[in-house]
Amino acid sequence: MRLIGVESMRGIGRMSRESGLTVSALRFYDGAGLLCPAHVDPHTGYRFYAPEQVAIARLVAALRRAGMPLAGIREVLERRRDPVAVDAIVADHVRALEEGLADARRVLSTVPPLLATLENTVPTTVTVPAHDLAAALRAVRFAVGADPRPPVLGSVLFDVTDVLTLVATDRYRLATAPVPVIEAEGPAVAAVVPVALADRIAAIVDGPGSGTVAITVADSTVTVRCGEAEAGGPLLDDAYPDYRRLLPAELPGVPVDAAALRAAVAAAPARMSVREQDGSEFAVTELAVGTGGVTVAPGGIGVNREFLLEAVDAGGDGQLLLALDGPVAPIVLRSERSTSLLMPVRL
């Protein structure tokens, strides 16, 4: 007996080519009862598929590429004539994928510090000029968080690569300062130094004729030697925020004289604002950039005045570069000594 319409049937090889599903996948979906052939030859076991099954197979292939589980695909096929129901199934799957991606990002964010822990089995020692390390510690100290939660914000990052970069942030401001490396031995390392220990380090390196400083990171501790003096202690094991992605792309910046900016800020009328977190008041300075350079006057971008003056002091005397990139972008102050980012205040 001849099967009616057999000429239009697809063998499994042709079905694979037209649908994008492999032969083994077609066999699997047949076994799962998800995409069964229209006819199976009882003597040879060959599978044959009807023309209308090609579109269904392509749909199955697309849903599998999107990571939808078999139960979801089965539900889509069963309710394919109900677009509203299918949209809901797809939306649920997209939400599950987004939640899974967020979980994966959280887990993968722990990989760099875990790798650093493995690398820290080999000590890292860098030798730097004492006066440069002292200047860098002064330049970032103002940005260390006073709130002990989370502890990592009450610390200074010693980021050792081909240079030593010191970093501090309390969410509202961020400061970085480079320290040239004279000599280095061991892998790159990111050492999160509690601020109390950073202050002890500053005390032994901040002085005339201090010469060079040897900084050794090993076994989750840091040891700093400057001449006969030594300071050291345990590091925080928390991952430090990725400060590099917080640094903005290079902005042109407007040259400003540090002393002139301090004087303009002091002479400007005070405008008070209230911190949402604790209800405390603080003074706000408004900055703008015009044809004549930086001006301190109402109508500009608001910034915490105390933070601004601390950032100016961190940059040192002489000329600074100040960049404003809109009311929601950080205010950037650059000098050869440091880079400071200050979050604007909503006025």
What's this, in brief?
The protein is an alpha+beta fold and 347 residues long. The chain contains eleven helices and 20 strands.
Structural summary, described in words:
The structure is a single chain. The chain has eleven helices and 20 strands. It has 347 residues and is an alpha+beta fold. It starts with 9 loop residues before the first strand and ends in a 5-residue tail after the last strand.
Give the biggest sheet: 8 strands, antiparallel
Which overall shape is indicated by the principal axes computed on the Cα atoms?
A: elongated
How much helix, percentage-wise, in residues? 25-40%
Low-confidence stretches: none
Strand numbers in spatial order across the main sheet: 9-5-6-7-20-19-18-13
Number of extended strands: 20
Strand content: 25-35%
Q: Would you tell me the overall average pLDDT?
A: 87
Number of contiguous helices: 11
Termini, distance in Å?
86 Å
Supply the helix-strand structural class: alpha+beta
- How is the quaternary structure best described? single chain
State Rg: 32 Å
What are the salient characteristics of this protein?
347 residues, 5-stranded antiparallel beta sheet, alpha+beta, single chain, 20 strands
Fold blueprint:
Elements: E1 10-11, H1 12-19, H2 23-31, E2 39-40, E3 47-49, H3 53-65, H4 70-78, H5 83-108, H6 111-119, E4 124-129, H7 130-141, E5 155-160, E6 164-169, E7 173-179, E8 183-185, E9 189-194, H8 195-205, E10 212-218, E11 221-226, E12 229-234, H9 243-246, E13 254-257, H10 258-267, E14 271-274, E15 281-290, E16 293-296, E17 301-304, H11 305-315, E18 319-323, E19 331-334, E20 339-342
Antiparallel strand pairs: 1-3, 2-3, 4-8, 4-10, 5-6, 5-9, 6-7, 7-20, 10-11, 11-12, 13-18, 14-15, 15-16, 15-17, 18-19, 19-20
Helix pairs in contact: 7-8, 10-11
